[in-house]
Amino acid sequence: LETAYIDGRRLAIKEGKRAQFGVRIPNQEEYSQICPFSIEQILDEDFYG
Prior knowledge:
The chain is mainly alpha-helical. The chain has one domain. It contains 2 helices and no strands.
């Protein structure tokens, strides 16, 4: 999970810089350094509502 999150965070920052959504894109510092969810939450299909 840690490695996947680091890779995903890096990709989200890269893609966010290139995106043109018409909304504010978070600065690199605003992305959490560690995954804010547990593996159980991620795998729980009902967690995200």
